[in-house]
Amino acid sequence: MFRTRRRKIERLDFILAGAQKSGTTALHYFLSKHPDITMGDQQEMHFFDNDAMFVADVDYEQLHKHYPLLAPSKIAGDCTPSYLYHAPVAERIWKYNPQIKLLILLRNPVDRAFAHWNMQRFKGREPLDFFDAVREEQARIAGAPPVEARRFAYVDRGFYGRQLARLFKLFPREQMKVVKFEEFKEHQRETLGSIFSFLGCKPLHSVRSKDRNIVPYQRAMNWEERVFLYNLFAEDIANVEQMLGWDCSDWKL
């Protein structure tokens, strides 16, 4: 009986790079259940957004040590949602592996912002009410260390156009799959099928759907807040529609 020869990881095959609060935890769960995929020993590796790793020569072993020896047919991925937002990451990933595949989930930026704030409140990190936090955002993130700044970037993280543009500048479109969170939620089986196909894997048939990373909401967003945020995002939503050929009418008032 022949044993399958296992190999040490040389480069990741794909990255699930964001956006935060857009279904990445649920998608990570499904990816990790696939017999031909390994997602390493923790959900968020935070390698490419760790600026300290890139001051001198990059030691990719600090990333690869989180992955087991792989069977020949198995592929390896990382799910770190902040990679989409942190500006230097796109070029770092490209230098690491220009052939890598990128998965992006995008959610209505108004709902994403509120979900992000709610998560921070739930974790005890956010003393301000939502509207106050939004109005104070630019002052809070200006000059703050990147890790601190992105915790409170409720609005800034929702401007997807410039985040996608960084990736499109470096990676061919066929190496990227951008998925609408609302589609993933409403048509999970079909969306998962297309994601596994993109990764070169067979569909996953028997995994039970389960909401992941659900935080109870303190309150609902009110209409004044929703209108205010939509007006901030309207131009960028139109830009995303044009970039991706999407219909984002469900993101509009």
Notes on the protein architecture:
- With about 250 residues, the chain is an alpha/beta fold.
- The chain has a single domain, classed as Rossmann fold (3-Layer(aba) Sandwich).
- The chain is about 40% helix and about 10% strand.
- The chain has 10 helices and 5 strands.
- A 5-stranded parallel β-sheet has the order 2-3-1-4-5.
- The longest helix has 22 residues, at about 225-245.
- The chain is globular and about 60 Å long.
- The model has no long low-confidence stretch (mean pLDDT about 95).
Report Rg.
19 Å
Total strands: 5
Which spans of ≥5 residues are poorly predicted at pLDDT below 50? none
CATH architecture grouping: 3-Layer(aba) Sandwich
Assembly level:
single chain
Q: Give a short account of the largest sheet.
A: 5 strands, parallel
Separate helix tally: 10
CATH secondary-structure class: Alpha Beta
Q: In the residues, how many domains can be counted?
A: 1
Neighbour order of strands in the largest sheet: 2-3-1-4-5
How would you sum up the global shape?
globular
Cα distance spanning the termini: 63 Å
What percent of the residues sit in helical stretches (DSSP H or I)? 40-55%
CATH fold assignment: Rossmann fold
In round numbers, the mean pLDDT is 94
Q: Per DSSP, what share of the residues sits in E-state strands of 2 or more residues?
A: 5-15%
CATH superfamily, by name, is P-loop containing nucleotide triphosphate hydrolases
Structural class: alpha/beta
